[in-house]
Every structure is written in structure tokens, then in C-alpha cells.
Design brief:
By secondary structure, chain A is mainly α. Helix content of chain A is about 70%, strand content about 0%. Bound molecules: adenosine-5'-triphosphate (ATP) (2 copies) and magnesium ion (2 copies). One adenosine-5'-triphosphate binds next to strand 2 and helix 1 of chain E.
Chain lengths: ~300, ~350, ~375, ~270, ~350
């Protein structure tokens, strides 16, 4: 088959696309990348800034106002009282430390549990088992936060399942309290920690693990020197979930926390109960500062791309 | 039509800067209609960037691009009558082979039946009719490459841009595809602009070759021009293997001023010094013998000069085995010595 | 808004009723407004809708404080508020005076619930009493013996059941401590647990801080309380009658008592928003819920004594709640919002207001 | 990775134990849904199907599920659009303030829900003066759902590169056609995965919802919360939870299948 | 030491099945200590799988692997005294070049100072001392390849496995690296097992080559054995370019029974039929001339036979330009004709 087509005698059989307005717009966009960028960014930025950032800033501004104690109306006069109360009040220091302790414990426990299971899912299990495990990990997400928290209340109670299982070993359920809160929160956020770590481990090429073994690295060595450093950003991403969700929780501690309260409770009572939004806003500053600090700390690890 | 008078592509002062890097640096170039034109050069020399500028994926920092006399510098890629075969083929993974090939027709609003027919014809031209219903992932590398070719040619572009289309293939497959590519270009009569860093490929396929170096064209000419008359040390070294003699050595061994080069296949080994008219020789010691199948490469340390490579043909004419340490006379003909233009001359 | 403490806001009471608007929006405790959607057998809204043509939308709240915040949105026509919320609503002008003449069923309400300090100001009624109940002392009969008769079981003797004492989770619980102090430290001179001056308040807070050491958990929803007593995680503490009823039905070893010191309690009030968009439907609802049948259904479902005299004709459990027992009712200090102007009538001191109660409560819990 | 048999078995056992622990509370919920005890006491004093019958009759539960689905779908849809737009902007362009925008997207999920909740509550009510309704819930949910879509889509865009889009433009397709025929089909499974997670997040959100829901707006978690305060309703909640877990297998399985099949074809 | 008597590697009946696919099919092989051994074959022929079996990343379905006489079939990768240079290099991205190279020493518990010193020495051997502090991502392809090599050799394995280590490199760089690789192997005296699908590379570098086909070894021998005496049509075609004559054509043109092949460089073009002793020739028409720099490929349609390729050397001995359509006599010497063993013979 030899077509003989000197260019000049070739009849053009393929039409050029019609120059519709959409086409012209598209040509304009294609040669003006900045316009394209502006169009892409407008709606989401508008939303995030207008809905979220403005709301957040206004909340923080509220922290400098006060509330009339009897009518509950906000008085828009600038004052540092709330901030001073929060910074100097021993109540807030105690609760902040307690909340931080719980959040850190939950984060550590979740990472410790998520690592082996995520590793098994990503690097050891066959594809079939892997798929099964992903489903098994995701399913509890749908069982409703409250239902699960109450289920733990039942499990942890004096004659609950845990007591029944531990009694033969001479151990006892921790009962309601901070330990119970840590256990329950760890349970609730576990899937949110497993998923990013699993995804992160999956991205570690097998050949690197093989290279380590090839050079004489035993299993634990490989895990410590190669797998962990490479999965680190993903692990950090997981910790952001566990940490921030724990930091703001007030429902779980109510259900299984015994008489303890966390920062979330203080915020909640002040806004929901005491109707003191300015003080609530001042208290809210604590977790905001903590989270911003944490984000700044982990930002360079690239973790924020792994959520 | 003016197409015949006008070059298919004319680049004038084309420059592209990425931040501080000049990826393409004042390139002027004309490519004739129907030419098989190659761009050869080491990694990072700007070949891909030139191609992307022609296709319209990048906007030049300065300079203009003309297609058959028409300035297209400001036009969007989809408004340019050129098509590209990408290095990684960029086949749409969610479409069948047929849909991939028909894509260009579909976006031009051609009816389903007609585009099917024409896509099948294009697939037939690359001998892939029976794979029309497959997904790209179900094809081998060579087959994908042919689909990419069919997809780009079905819309009958005036110029086809190919960015190392054979780079991802096995050597064996690659040689096979080179032959097919040349065949298709001849059949369609389209201008091909072909990017490669494989000098043998460029020599084999092209009508003309531009050798790129640091964003500039170092030499432009036919394969023979480049190989037999390299204009610079860089070209002599990059295109094929060269034995280079600096000014001192040239004066001593060749008896001429300036840098010179000789190709390994222009050298022969002999037991005694040369005697023929126009022949010269130099004594040396064999330091390595490498069997390459169609020939044998002998590396010889000349007594008074550099280490040279001699390519002996693996046939009856060949001298008996020279082992390491053998004393030999490396012989050449004066006419095979190429003077390298000193940079800036 | 109004910021002066005792001005009764909300403008004028309505003098006559117009046509119903076709809808009404109600804010109430969970279980106060049931339309059968949770349980088809529990429904006293459909009848109202049929009768008046007012479609009901409702939202429930978890604590009195939440109700106060929500009423500020102006989204609601009617609110069922406990005594620790009513005065705040009145003071803020969020609710309007109620003309009880426009509510035929008002006549059937127990007199001992009418025109009290938590539902009226200067003799002007601000709503219709709903149900009432006391915050009783519950104990596990296996663990706690002898059977307690005094609140000392959860205060001075709390250490005996350390870690298994429970208490109601709200600032208003400070009043429980005040009731106890009223009997045990008469020299503090507490007249009304909702009118505490600085020293009285400090004594109550100290008592609660001491109690905190032994508290296993605070409760605010009754599922939590029921579970805790059933499993033995709590053995003694405040409760509501309805909780005991549930526990009894499940054969739990628990008992309740109205301690000798008396108790705090609640009497809820149906109120109308000062800017109600549907005032006529609102009045219709107040009348409907004060009717013996609806009143019986609603209070029975929530587990409290009804406010309507005739309601007990429709309930068989009235006895358990001591309904209509004026003597029993007189031992109850009904929840009232603590304000700076002492509700016990003292004028020589400033009382500690509810905002400070809230802060103190957070500090007690620690 | 090739592990020694003992390491492999140990890992498998650890994984098994963790999964077991994960399912113990769910098992408790399952048992409770059949329990005669209204207070979820353990062990159950007896078994009954009463709650299952009641749950299926409960109009409130059905309405709550419907509300939750509506909220989740609406906020997921918004998140899908906004998340896709912003990931294309961040992946395909370099611009000043890119890092800040990135942080902006993460913030709604990184800050505790109660802060988001009170901030939005304050914003809607006192600043904007809009009454709380189902739509304020949708707006709030969409805000923190953007990040899950964003992360999935941007990862896909990164892997996809620009060559497919360039190929499409090269063949004559304008930007709209390219998006419809090439980009979108490539993003589909990432959108599905991100959307599913967004849906789940919204569906189970309680704290932000508490602060942004108008009167009469009862999403499922709100309904459950309210029912926890009612006598004789707790087991119905257990039934709902069991049904949700079981029903959730379908979308999770489908998403797995879709993304799985895509992987094997690459 | 027994090392000298024992082969470095002995594979016995080695088989690996993936589901229904036999990736490696009863391979028996001995590789001597210090040998540069290559495995050559088309894609999917099982080369990588053999390597992975030797390294221990896969367990064989049956068969055994011995290392210097010791059966290591059941051993974990980290217990085998072999190291691998991976095709994608598999450098640890989070470690510096130095840490990468020192990794194998680190896991052996060698002190920081000593391992630093030895790693620097290994880096010096590949001329990368000055890059020690960089991360792999800051290196070029060729540099990475050398780091991978240093990392694998620093622990002084007895056998080094290399899976297409040059596959990702530019042609020019590749040629350069081939020379270095050979140099390093000589210097260290380690057994190299080298996987490639580039026949020229295999011929250039290896002491012996195994040609793989469908999981089996099709032919095993020195480069010269394979090139000059291919045992089958497959090998003749895969290793270098061959002109194949089937039984009929062989009978007619060559005068022998069975299939035969002749290499392009063994053919010459002449204006008249051959007359020399042992020479034969056949008339034909030139259909294509391809300039390849060091030579010119002429494709000739023989009047009585197949299309053949003739490789003319680009030097003074070369005949004047033959254009398309020229009539020529293709000439060869009887001794250059190779009889292909029919499969199963
Ligand atoms: N998008 C970009 N941003 C910044 N620098 C770029 C970009 N694209 C190319 N460059 C730089 O421009 C120069 C030329 O690159 P180009 O891709 O054109 O080279 P090439 O000749 O095609 O090389 P190769 O053979 O490796 O494909 C290089 O230095 C490269 O790093
Ligand atoms: N993990 C695996 N699972 C299933 N099949 C496999 C696996 N690894 C390899 N194979 C199959 O085994 C055969 C041999 O593969 P192998 O990778 O050894 O070939 P190769 O010679 O290295 O090819 P290439 O030159 O492409 O690298 C192929 O058919 C391949 O599809
Ligand atoms: Mg390039
Ligand atoms: Mg391979």
C-alpha cells in the first residue's frame, strides 16, 4: 500500500474543529494559564475563606469580647479578661495537660496498632486478603460514633465483657476514667490512622525492601531503617487525624471518662451551657495553638500531602 | 497552494527559559515539507522543549514558530495542524485501541460510522486491525507504539512530532520499528520531526539531523555530513565513536595543524608500517580486544600518542587474532582524517 | 438586648386569640414532643395537629443551658423550660408573658405549681407548668447498707463508696449541696439553695470538691445512669424516679429515697417566645399539653409527675411519682436560675449568679 | 516482602487479634440489638426481635437516615466539585501562596470539630443572620469534606501527569472536551474513593452537626444522640448501627473493586 | 579453600511457576567463580526470575540453588552471600549516597568510622567521592547506577547479580558504563551474573552467555559461539542480525540440506558473479540503502530467494554507492554459512 500524497495535491478530508464560542473560550484559556488558574481557584478559595476562615477569625475576635452574665448577650467591648482567665486559670492548665496527655496517648497507641496491620496489609498479604482487610478496617467506620462509644461503655463496665475476659487472668477492667477514654478514642480513630499508613506503605517500592534484605538487613532491620523512614510522612498524616480528633472530643469522655473533663467539654459547656461564647472562644484558642504548632512541626516531613 | 514554497516549520530566534535555565537558546531552523528531520543530542540539551514549543504545550520566551508560513506562536495546541507521538505514548487507558485512534476524529465532530471506518484504516496501516477492541494495557510495547502512531496520523497532520518514540522498546523491537517508521513516513509523505538521543537511530532514519547541545544547534546536516565531517569535537564524539587527536598529536602523527578525528572503521591494523600512497601509520600495543559480533573492537595504545579504537570487520579480510600486548601498526588514509573546526572558528 | 437584671422583658401578654397559623415550632426536652415517629404508640402530637391544623416541628435539647442558647436564635415559638432556664429567658426578653385566661386547661393544673418564682415575675405568669419531679437519692441495695436516709451518703460518707458515687452533671447540682448544708450547717444561714451569697456558695463548692474525689462519674443522660447502676459502676447518687422505674423493671437491686433534708427538683414550664411567629398555634399547644390526656401521655413517657390534676386518670403509675402529693412536693426545691438579686428576698447581699455557678462547676469537676 | 515464616505468622496473628478487638464492640452492638434489656446491660437478660421490628417501623429513624443521606450526598457533591477544582489548581500550577492554600484545605479537618462547629454556628447566626437549617449543615460538612476529595484527586493527578491531557489537546480537543473525555474518566475512581470517605465522614459527623443543625433537622447521629436520652430506645439504635455496618459493605466493596481493577490494568 | 574447585553458582532443575505460567522451566546451570556471565533473552523469558531465585526473593517451585557447593535454596536473602544491583537501582531515597553505600556494613554491625572509610573507598572506586553527601535524587542516572554498584560491592559478595543495570541509561552513557563495569569486575574478581536483553551489550561484556527463551536456556556459550555458531533459528535471529535461508532456499542457493544463516557482514556486493575458491554468489536488486555511520546496510532482493541484508564497511574498500534498483551480485564464502540445528535435533 503506497499512498502518493505530495502535500499540495492532498485533499484535506479532516475538517478543522468548528470555531464555536466554547472553542474560542477554550483557546483563550489554553493560551492564558493564569486565567485558567484563577478560574480553578476562585470557587474553592471563595468557599474556604468566606465560610471557614472568616468564621474562624470572627470566633477568635469574640474571645476578646464579653458576655452579659444575666441576659447572655454579647458585649462587644475589647477585653483581655477571657484570655487572661484561660492562660492563668489552673483549671485550664490542668485540663489542657490532661487533654494533651490523652491525645498523645491515643496517637501513640493508634500508630502502634496501625503499623503492624497496615504493614501486613500493604506488604505481606496476598491481593485477595488485602482487599478483605481493607473492607474489614473500613466497615466499623459506619457503625456510628455514638453507638461504638456506648458499646465500649458496656465492654468496659464492672461486669462487662472485658472484666469477664480479664478476670480469669486476675486482671480487671480499668472502669470508667481516662484509661477508658484513651481506649475508646483509640478505637474510634483507628481506621483513620490505618488508612493513610497503609496507603503510604503501599507506595514504598518492594525493591527497596529487597535491596535491604539483599545487603544483609534482617527483617527488623529493614523495617527500622527502610520501611519506617519512608512511611514516616504517612504516619504523621495518620497522627494528625488521631491527635486532632482526640483534642476536640467531648462526647466520648462524657460516656466513658468517668468524672473527667477535657478541653472539648470546657468549650462545650461554655458555649452550649453557660452561653459564654467569648470564653469558649478563648478556650478554643488552646487547641488551635496546639494544632498549628503541630502542623508547623510536621509540615516539612511532607505529611500534609498524605492525609 | 503555497505549502510547497514554504518550509513546513520555520523557527526564528526561538528561546525558552525556565527560571534561570535556557532550555532553548535562540534556535533558527527551517524544515522542509515531507522531510524526515531528526533532533539528536544528549539529555537535557533541549530537544523535547523544542518539540513542545512546536506542538504548543509551552509558550516561548521569545521567538516565533511558523507552520507553512503561518505564525502559530500564540495558538493553542488544538489549533495547530501538527500531531505528536509521545515518548510514553500517552494512550488513553480507559478507551479501546479503536476509540484511541478515533479520538481526533471524534473531537472534530465526525460521525461515528465514518470515524470508525477511518480509524480502522489507520489501524490497518500499522497492522493492528485485530486489536481494535483491546485496551492499551493489553498490548505489548511495540503495539502501543504503533497505536500512538495511528492515532496521530489518522487526523492527517501536516507535521508529525515524535519524541523518542522508540526509547522504551527492546533493542530488537526497536530496530524493527525503525524500519516501519521510515516506511510509514514515506507512504504518508508527512513531515516527521523525530527526537532521539540514539545517534545510530538518527543516522539510519533521517534526511537531515540537528545536533543539539545546551539548547543550541551545534551542527545541522545530512547523516553523512555529520558523520564524515563533524564540525566540532562535540559532534565528532557524540555521533558515533571517534578517535580524537589534539593539536599536538595531530602535528606529530598526522602532520597537520589543529584538532583532528578519525573514525575507528577507517583504521586498520597491520604488522608493518604502511607504504601505500596517502597512507600513514603509527606503531602501538593492543590493550583490549572486544568482540561485538559484526566486528571486533581493538583498543590500541599508540607509542607516541593517544589510545585509539580500531574497528575490525568480522569477515575473511580480518587479520588473525591480536591479543593483548601484541605490537601492531595502526594505519589510515590521509583522506579519512577529519579536521575539527575549533570552537568559534 | 436588655441587660438590666430584673426587667421582665418580652412585652405584653396577648389579650385575644386569632386564627391559627398552620404551624408551630417547639423546643423541648427529649420525649416532650412525640409524634409517633420514634415509636408509633407514643404520639400526642398528631391529635394536636388534627385538631388545630398546626403542623409541629420540634427540636430537643440536652441541658437547660442549651435551651437558653437556642431560644436566642428566634427560631422557636414555644419552649419547655426547666426552672434553671426560665428566669434567664424572661430576663433576656426571649419569652413573653402568658395570658392564662386564653388557656382553658390551665384551670386543671395543681395550684402548688402555679405562680412560683421560676414561672412568674411579680405575679405575672410566664407559662403553663408541665410536669415535675425530684432529684432523688438512689442506691444499690446490695452494696449500700443500711439504707441511707440522708444526702450524707453522697457527701460526708461518700468515701465509703469511693469511685462509685454519681451526681447530676450540671452547675445546678450545686443547689443539692446547698440543700444538704442548709440542714447540716445551719450557721451558714442558707434560706434558699438558689440564693447563695459568697460564703454560702464557697461552702457548697468546697463540699462538692470534697465529693469529687469519690465520684465515679457525673451523669446527664439517663441511659448512662441506668447502665451504671445495673453494672455496679455506680452504687449511690442522685437520680430521677423514672430511672428507678426502669431499673426495677429489669430487676436491678436499686431503691430510691427522698432524703430527710429534702431535695432539688424541677418543674418545667411551657413558654411562648416573645417574637413568636405563630403565637396562636403556640397558645393552642399550651392548652393542648395542659389537657389531662396529653399531659398524662407526655409526663408518663418522660417519667415524671403530671401537672394536671386529672392526668392521673390516664396514668396508672402516678403513685410512684407522688403526683399531686402536695406534702411531698413541698419538700422539693424546684430549679430556679440563681441571679444576683437573691431570690430569697435578701437585699443586703449580692447572690452568686449563674455564670459563676457555671465556672465553679467546671472547677469542681477539674 | 519476603519475611521469615515466623515473622509472617506473627504479623498475621497480630493483625488477626487487632481485627478481633475491632469487632468485639461491634459484636456487643449486634447482641444488644436482640437484647431484652432496654439499657444495653451485659450480659443480655434475654433475646427478642422486638427492636428490629420497632426499628423498621420507626419513622424517625427512617427520616433521620434520609436526612443524613441527603446531607452526605449534598456535601459530598460540593466537596467533589471544590476538591477537584482546587487539586487541579495546586497540581497543575505553581503560584505564590500555594503552601498557604494547601494548609487552608487541611485546616477544617485538622482543627477539632467543636471549634469548627462553634465558629460556623457563630458565623451563621450572629454574623450572617441566616437561620440554621439543613443547608447550614451541608455547608459545614462540605467544608471539612473537601480535604478527602482533594487528597485522592491530587494523588491521581500527580500519577497521571499531563501527557494524556496534552495528547488530547494535540489531537484537537479543547479544554472542555479534554476534561470530559480524558481527565474526568481518569479521575473517576479517585473521585469515588474520595467521595466515599467524604460521605462516611459527613454521615457520622455529630459535633459540627450539633452546632449547625436547625430545629427539626435530625441527622442520624443527632437522632441517635436524642434517643440515648430516651428510655426504651437504645436497642433500636443498636439495630440501626448493625444495619448500617452491613449495608456499608456494598459501597466499600464496589469502591475496592473499581480501584483494584484499575490498578491491575496499569 | 574449596571455592576454587566449586562453581560459584550451580542451579539444578530450577523451576518457578506463577500460577499456570512456567517462568523458569528446569534450568540447569553452572557458573564458574570469577566469570562475567550474561543472561540474554527477550522480554518475559525468565531472566529476572532466575536472578530473583538466586538472590532469594522468590522460592523455587522445585530444584536447588548452590553457592560454592552449599545449598542455599531455603535461605533468606540476607543469609546469602550474593548481592544485587537492581534495574531501578533501588537506592534508599531517605539516605545520603554515603549512607546508602554504608548500609550493608551498618547492618553487619561495623563501627561508624570503619564503615565510613570503606564506603568512601567503594565510592572512590566508582569515582563518586565528591557526591557522598548528596541524596540519590540529586544524582543523574549514570551516577545512581554507580552508587548502586558501590553499595552492592562494598560488602564484598562472592557473586554480584545485575538486572539490566544499564537499561535506563542513554546510549552514550551506556557504552561508557559498559566499559566501567567490565573494569570493576576485573579489578574485584567477583562473579558477575548480568541480565540484559541487549545482545550487543552481552557480546561485548561476557565470558559466557546463556540465551533464554520461554524459561529455558536455548543456548549456552561464549559470545563467539553464539554469534558464529548459533544453534537455532531463534538464537541466530536474536543475537545480531541474520539472513536466514530455509531448507528449500538453502538447497538452491547454498547447496546444502537444512536451514542455514549468514551474517550481513559476511556478505559482499560485487558487479559480477564470484569466482574465488569456496565463494558463491547470487544476483539480486538493491531495494534500500541505509547509512549507519560505521557502515552501510544494503537490503537486496535476491532473484531466486529471500531478501537479504548486506553490511558494507564504510571505508576505502567499499564499493561505490549502490542506489535503489541497482543490479548486484551478493557474494559469500562457504565457510561463513552456518547450519542451524533443526529444533529437536
Ligand atoms: N518544565 C520545566 N521546568 C524547568 N526546567 C525544565 C522544564 N522542562 C525542561 N527543563 C529544563 O530544560 C532543559 C532542556 O530539557 P529538555 O527536556 O528539552 O531536554 P531533552 O533534550 O529532551 O533531554 P532528554 O534527552 O533527557 O529528554 C533541561 O535542563 C531541563 O532541566
Ligand atoms: N510475580 C509474578 N507473578 C506472576 N507472573 C510473573 C511474576 N513475575 C514474573 N512473572 C512471569 O514470568 C515470566 C518471566 O518473567 P521475567 O520477569 O523473569 O522475564 P524477563 O526475562 O526478566 O523479562 P524482561 O526482559 O521483560 O525483564 C513472564 O511471563 C512474567 O509474566
Ligand atoms: Mg526529552
Ligand atoms: Mg526482567
Amino acid at each position: 500500500m503506497r499512498i502518493e500524497p505530495p502535500v499540495d495535491t492532498r485533499t484535506v478530508r479532516v475538517p478543522s474543529p468548528a470555531a464555536t464560542p466554547a472553542r474560542r473560550a477554550s483557546a483563550f484559556l489554553s493560551t492564558h494559564p493564569r486565567t485558567r488558574l484563577a478560574l480553578l481557584l476562585t470557587a474553592p478559595l471563595f468557599w474556604l475563606v468566606l465560610v471557614y476562615i472568616v468564621a474562624l477569625v470572627l470566633l477568635l475576635v469574640t474571645a476578646f469580647w464579653q458576655v452579659d452574665s444575666f441576659t447572655g448577650e454579647i458585649v462587644t467591648e475589647f477585653t483581655f479578661d477571657n484570655i487572661i482567665t484561660v492562660v492563668t486559670g489552673s483549671l485550664y492548665q490542668t485540663v489542657t495537660l490532661r487533654t494533651l496527655g490523652v491525645a498523645i496517648a491515643v496517637t501513640i497507641i493508634d500508630v502502634a496498632i496501625a503499623l503492624p496491620i497496615a504493614f501486613y496489609m500493604a506488604k505481606v498479604a496476598t491481593p485477595r486478603v488485602q482487599r478483605f482487610l481493607v473492607i474489614a478496617v473500613l466497615m466499623p467506620l459506619w457503625a456510628s460514633y455514638l453507638v461504638k462509644a456506648y458499646a465500649w461503655r458496656s465492654v468496659l463496665s464492672q461486669d462487662g465483657i472485658l472484666e469477664w475476659m480479664l478476670a480469669p487472668l486476675g486482671l480487671h477492667t480499668p472502669g470508667y476514667g481516662l484509661t477508658a477514654t484513651i481506649i475508646t478514642l483509640s478505637y474510634l480513630w483507628l481506621p483513620y490512622v490505618i488508612l493513610p499508613i497503609y496507603a503510604g506503605l503501599e507506595r514504598v517500592p518492594d525493591s527497596l525492601l529487597e535491596a535491604s534484605a539483599d545487603l544483609g538487613g534482617k527483617t527488623w532491620r529493614t523495617v527500622g531503617s527502610v520501611v519506617m523512614p519512608l512511611a514516616f510522612p504517612a504516619i504523621i498524616a495518620g497522627t494528625i487525624f488521631a491527635f486532632s480528633l482526640s483534642l476536640g472530643d467531648y462526647i466520648t469522655v462524657n460516656i466513658v471518662g468517668g468524672a473527667n473533663q477535657m478541653l472539648g467539654n470546657l468549650v462545650y459547656t461554655n458555649v452550649g451551657a453557660a452561653n459564654n461564647l467569648p470564653l469558649a472562644a478563648a478556650i478554643a484558642l488552646i487547641p488551635i495553638v496546639i494544632i498549628f504548632g503541630y502542623l508547623a512541626l510536621v509540615r516539612r516531613t511532607g505529611a500534609l500531602d498524605n492525609l | 497552494m503555497t505549502d510547497q514554497q514554504q518550509p513546513a516549520i520555520r523557527l526564528t530566534g526561538l528561546t525558552k527559559e525556565f527560571g534561570a535555565v535556557s532550555a532553548v537558546d535562540h534556535v533558527d531552523l527551517e524544515i522542509a515539507a515531507g522531510e524526515f528531520f531528526s533532533m539528536l543530542g544528549p539529555s537535557g540539551s533541549g530537544k523535547t522543549t523544542v518539540l513542545r514549543l512546536i506542538a504548543g504545550f509551552e509558550q516561548p520566551t521569545s521567538g516565533t514558530i511558523e507552520l507553512f508560513g503561518q505564525d502559530v506562536t500564540a495558538k493553542a495546541p488544538f489549533d495547530r495542524d501538527v500531531n505528536t507521538v509521545f515518548q510514553d505514548y500517552a494512550l488513553f487507558p480507559h478507551m479501546t485501541v479503536l476509540d484511541n485512534v478515533a479520538y481526533g476524529l471524534r473531537v472534530r465532530g465526525i460521525k461515528r460510522a465514518e470515524r470508525r471506518e477511518r480509524a480502522m484504516k489507520a489501524l490497518a496501516a500499522v497492522r493492528l486491525e485485530q486489536f481494535a477492541a483491546r485496551k492499551p494495557s493489553q498490548l505489548s510495547g511495540g503495539q502501543r507504539q504503533r497505536v500512538a502512531l495511528a492515532r496521530a496520523t489518522v487526523v492527517e497532520p501536516k507535521v508529525l512530532l515524535l519524541d523518542e518514540p522508540l526509547g522504551a522498546l527492546d533493542l530488537k523491537l526497536r530496530e524493527q520499528m525503525q524500519v516501519e517508521l521510515k516506511q510509514i513516513q514515506r507512504d504518508l509523505g508527512i513531515t516527521f520531526i523525530f527526537v532521539t538521543h540514539d545517534q545510530e537511530e538518527a543516522l539510519t532514519l533521517s534526511d537531515r539531523i540537528a545536533v543539539f547541545h545546551d539548547g543550541r544547534i551545534e551542527q545541522l546536516g545530512s547523516p553523512q555530513d555529520l558523520y564524515e565531517r563533524p564540525a566540532s569535537r562535540f559532534v565528532a564524539d557524540f555521533v558515533g565513536t571517534s578517535n580524537l587527536f589534539d593539536a599536538d598529536r595531530s602535528a606529530a602523527l598526522i602532520g597537520r595543524a589543529g584538532e583532528h578525528s578519525i573514525r575507528p572503521e577507517k583504521l586498520t591494523l597491520a604488522d608493518a608500517a604502511a607504504t601505500g600512497a596517502g597512507e600513514r601509520s603509527a606503531p602501538g600495543t593492543v590493550v583490549e580486544s572486544i568482540y561485538v559480533g559484526s566486528g571486533i573492537r581493538r583498543v590500541v595504545d599508540l607509542d607516541e600518542g593517544p589510545r585509539v579504537t580500531v574497528l575490525e570487520r568480522n569477515d575473511r579480510s580480518r587479520r588473525g587474532d591480536s591479543d593483548r600486548g601484541d605490537r601492531v601498526h595502526v594505519t589510515w588514509h590521509d583522506e579519512d582524517v577529519v579536521a575539527l573546526v575549533p570552537p568559534g572558528a | 438586648g436588655t441587660s438590666s437584671g430584673n426587667s421582665a422583658g418580652g412585652g405584653e401578654e396577648q389579650t385575644e386569640l386569632g386564627d391559627t397559623e398552620g404551624q408551630v415550632s417547639i423546643l423541648a426536652w427529649p420525649g416532650y414532643v412525640e409524634d409517633g415517629s420514634n415509636d408509633p404508640t407514643v404520639d400526642w402530637v398528631s391529635g394536636f395537629e388534627e385538631k388545630t391544623g398546626c403542623t409541629v416541628t420540634s427540636k430537643s435539647y440536652g441541658t437547660s443551658d442549651e435551651a437558653v442558647s437556642l431560644m436566642k436564635t428566634g427560631d422557636y415559638d414555644v419552649v419547655a423550660a426547666s426552672g434553671d432556664a426560665t428566669l434567664r429567658l424572661i430576663a433576656a426578653g426571649d419569652v413573653a408573658p402568658v395570658n392564662t385566661d386564653l388557656i382553658p386547661n390551665y384551670a386543671g393544673i395543681y395550684d402548688f405549681l402555679k405562680d412560683k418564682e421560676w414561672n412568674s415575675v411579680d405575679g405575672q405568669s410566664y407559662g403553663v407548668p408541665h410536669g415535675y419531679g425530684a432529684n432523688l437519692l438512689m442506691y444499690n441495695t446490695d452494696e449500700v447498707s443500711p439504707a441511707p436516709t440522708s444526702w450524707s451518703a453522697v457527701f460526708d460518707d461518700a468515701s465509703e463508696y469511693s469511685g462509685k458515687v454519681t451526681a447530676y452533671d450540671s452547675p445546678i447540682y450545686i443547689a443539692d449541696a446547698a440543700v444538704y448544708l442548709m440542714a447540716h450547717q445551719p450557721d451558714l444561714g442558707i434560706e434558699n439553695p438558689y440564693a447563695l451569697d459568697e460564703t454560702q456558695f464557697a461552702a457548697a463548692v468546697d463540699l462538692l470538691k470534697a465529693q469529687r474525689e469519690h465520684v465515679g462519674e457525673y451523669w446527664s443522660d439517663y441511659l448512662k445512669e441506668i447502665q451504671a447502676f445495673e453494672t455496679g459502676d455506680s452504687v449511690v447518687g442522685t437520680t430521677w424516679q423514672v430511672i428507678q422505674n426502669v431499673l426495677a423493671s429489669e430487676d436491678a437491686a436499686t431503691e430510691v429515697v427522698l432524703p430527710e433534708e429534702g431535695a432539688t427538683g424541677w418543674s418545667d414550664t411551657w413558654m411562648i417566645a416573645s417574637e413568636a411567629k405563630n403565637p396562636n398555634c403556640a397558645y393552642a399547644w399550651l392548652d393542648w399539653i395542659a389537657s389531662p390526656e396529653a399531659n398524662a401521655q407526655a409526663t408518663a413517657y418522660f417519667g415524671e409527675a403530671p401537672s394536671s390534676d386529672a392526668a392521673c386518670d390516664y396514668r396508672d403509675d402516678c403513685e410512684a411519682y407522688h403526683a399531686g402529693d402536695a406534702d411531698y412536693a413541698s419538700k422539693i426545691w424546684y430549679w430556679t436560675t440563681p441571679i444576683a438579686d437573691c431570690v430569697d428576698g435578701r437585699t443586703d447581699v449580692e447572690c452568686v449568679d449563674y455564670a459563676q455557678w457555671t465556672q465553679a462547676w467546671a472547677e469542681i469537676k477539674g | 516482602m519476603r519475611l521469615g515464616t515466623s515473622a509472617r505468622v506473627t504479623l498475621a496473628i497480630v493483625t488477626g487479634i487487632i481485627l478481633l478487638a475491632v469487632y468485639v464492640p461491634l459484636f456487643v452492638v449486634l447482641v444488644n440489638s436482640f437484647s431484652t434489656s432496654t439499657s444495653l446491660s451485659w450480659p443480655p437478660p434475654g433475646f427478642t426481635l422486638e427492636w428490629w421490628a420497632k426499628a423498621f417501623e420507626s419513622q424517625g429513624a427512617r427520616d433521620a437516615v434520609a436526612t443524613s443521606i441527603l446531607v452526605a450526598i449534598a456535601s459530598t457533591a460540593i466537596a467533589l466539585v471544590l476538591g477537584t477544582l482546587i487539586s487541579m489548581a495546586l497540581q497543575r500550577f505553581d503560584f505564590f501562596g500555594k503552601q498557604t492554600v494547601n494548609l487552608l484545605i487541611i485546616l477544617p479537618i485538622a482543627l477539632p470539630g467543636i471549634i469548627t462547629g462553634i465558629a460556623l454556628n457563630n458565623f451563621f447566626r450572629t454574623i450572617m443572620g441566616v437561620p440554621l437549617s439543613i443547608w447550614t449543615v451541608v455547608i459545614a460538612h462540605a467544608t471539612f469534606c473537601i480535604v478527602t476529595v482533594f487528597n485522592n484527586v491530587i494523588a491521581r493527578l500527580r500519577r497521571m501527569g499531563t501527557s494524556l491531557e496534552e495528547a488530547s489537546a494535540d489531537l484537537g480537543a479543547g479544554v472542555w472536551t479534554t476534561f470530559r473525555l480524558v481527565t474526568f474518566p481518569q479521575l473517576r475512581s479517585a473521585l469515588l474513593a474520595g467521595g466515599l470517605l467524604a460521605f462516611a465522614l459527613s454521615f457520622d459527623e455529630i459535633i459540627v452537626t450539633t452546632f449547625t443543625a436547625g430545629s427539626g433537622v435530625a441527622t442520624l447521629p443527632i437522632f441517635i444522640l436524642n434517643n440515648m436520652f430516651r428510655p426504651s430506645q437504645a436497642p433500636i439504635v443498636a439495630v440501626i448501627a448493625v444495619v448500617l455496618v452491613v449495608v456499608s459493605i456494598v459501597p466499600i466493596y464496589l469502591a475496592q473493586r473499581l480501584s483494584g481493577s484499575e490498578q491491575t490494568h496499569r
